[in-house]
Specification:
Radius of gyration: 18 Å
Number of domains: 1
CATH superfamily: Decaprenyl diphosphate synthase-like
CATH architecture: 3-Layer(aba) Sandwich
Number of helices: 7
Strand order of the largest sheet: 3-4-2-1-5-6
Largest sheet: 6 strands, parallel
Helix content: 25-40%
CATH class: Alpha Beta
Length: 237
Amino acid sequence: MPLFKKQPQNRILPTHIAIIMDGNGRWAKKRSMPRSAGHVAGAKTFKNIARYCNKIGLKYLTVYAFSTENWKRPKDEVEGIMNLLRDYLKDAENFKNENIKVKFIGDLEPLADDIKELIKKDEDGSKDATGLNLSIAINYGGKDEITKAVRKIVNEGIPAAEITEQTISDRLYTGGMPDPDFIIRPSGEYRLSNYLIWQSAYAEYWFSDVLWPDFTPKHLEKAIDDYNHRNRRFGGV
């Protein structure tokens, strides 16, 4: 049952929604709490939204969890985020019956060995799921992703004349996935922050002042309703 009674009968659900999960620190600061508390609250919101997306039949959801620039944050904050990732991965066994296929995108090499082992276990354990395709961007940066794709092309010896947009797309972390048609950023910021910069060439954007820990399925439904009023022309008339 839709959360809003006035949903159009012919509502179009985006194929791929990408979310920049932003505002955890500010959420905590407003409540005179440590930033770590904001990340804990944000992690709960992430699980709630992912489950809701699966429930409504969304095919692809990609979330920005930790960027290549986030390593610059205080050491204790980074360690806290990594421990939350560990908790999520260890808890993944309990969600197999939700039929969500999980993939992690980004440069995973710098992550701790135990995290990489848990990631592999989580991906392998959900590989046969047929519901939501959930991608979690960890140590991800759009420019870094494109740079690595170009290096792959050079190393493969592909002649310059044979390089197409598809050649590059296939070598991105998201290779084989449809580009996002809808990008959501809560928290009052109006930028991509190096997120899916190749893939978002024709995405629609939706911004909100709501901080990520306060983001609910009702906010998602409002965003989708707005998406349904967009005229996607892809350069045409």
